[in-house]
Amino acid sequence: MPTKQVVRPRIRGYICVSAHPDGCAAHVREQIxxxxxxxxxxxxxxxxxxxxxxxxxxxxxxxxxxxxxHAATLGVFFEKPPENGRPASAGWYNxxxxxxxxxxxxxxxxxxxxxxxxxxxxxxxxxxxxxxxPKIDLVVYSLAxxxxxxxxxxLSHRSVLKPxxxxxxxxxxxxxxxxxxxxxxxxxxxxxxxxxVKVMGGEDWELWMEALDxxxxxxxxxxSVAYSYLGPQVTWPVYKNGTIGRAKQDLTRAANAIxxxxxxxxxxxxxxxxxxxxxxxxxxxxxxxxxxxLLFRAMKSRSIHEGxxxxxxxxxxxxxxxxxxxxxxDEGYVRMDNWELREDVQKExxxxxxxxxxxxxxxxxxxxxxQKEFLKLFGFGLPDIDYEAPTELxxxxxxx
Length: 400
Ligand code: NAD
What we know:
This protein is α/β, with parallel strands linked by helices.
């Protein structure tokens, strides 16, 4: 099979099953430029483990810390390499591009590709840290996955996005057909809730931290952050009060347990509630894409719009480092969604919500911006890329 091909977007439902290597590299370069433009972190970390490091918030965290603090980063992710003439997944190309650039810039990087939920990956990461890295002073937990095999029981669990207690009917944006529709989601069963907590709750984060602690690879003062989302009332039935919200509550339980563990070495663990952005995970949640299209319009018109990289740069520079204190809310969360939830922003979204139809959605929402962001996740629509030219599908990542 020739490894050079013209790569076009192949969208199936809410996912794009192809990815453009040069476009993904350009997207990573954009994020690197953004991180470099932010002031350097004064007391930033030296050695960072990022679990879920290839796309979305995890990739942005990796870039922000590598370029904001010159941190060595070990990135764990689950991505598809190129094979049999098919392009790799976007996260693979992102990681290949990030590693290549970071090495050129003299920044230490290493990546591990495989199932982070398993014991084998935890052991592999520990061995890399022991042999090649200073002790870890920050662990970023940014996994988003539809399934998890419990390493203790061997049982597989699937997360679902369902309301709890009653069915929920709402307006939604079908991003495949570009149409506003009504969607009815059936209420979750007890099993659905338990499975979603197993996959997206805090158990695996705890297992990681316990394993790292037991192996003696955490530095004095080590911190750990996991990302969460709460959002506005229109999405609560499917998010905050739904199965995924239960899983996020469990993340908070885990944060407290990990915090107690890390305090023994003067460290801490916390949950950062981030703003809604277009990622492979958020585009799969019913109702959320319509909300994001409205939100982007409201935030862009006020010049307070942020993507993943701007959010995490603000998190690290104004909360975690530079002699700042974590500004916890009453429930113990760091709130990076404070601009999203501003009253004027939410009022605009809330006022427009009932008026949106298929006919007026391009005028009343930033669906055009949403679609551009979505395609960009897979390396499409970036400037200065010749999308008509065959491109090299192979993109090696050292050691993988
Ligand atoms: P994403 O889909 O962009 O990234 C998920 C990452 O997890 C990827 O690196 C992927 O390779 C990795 N991954 C998935 N399964 C894996 C496995 N079994 N083993 C190893 N790696 C695996 O997701 P995202 O939207 O950036 O979400 C990351 C976190 O941020 C989640 O906790 C999410 O709830 C939270 N968050 C997201 C948003 C949003 O709007 N997207 C908002 C606030 C908080």
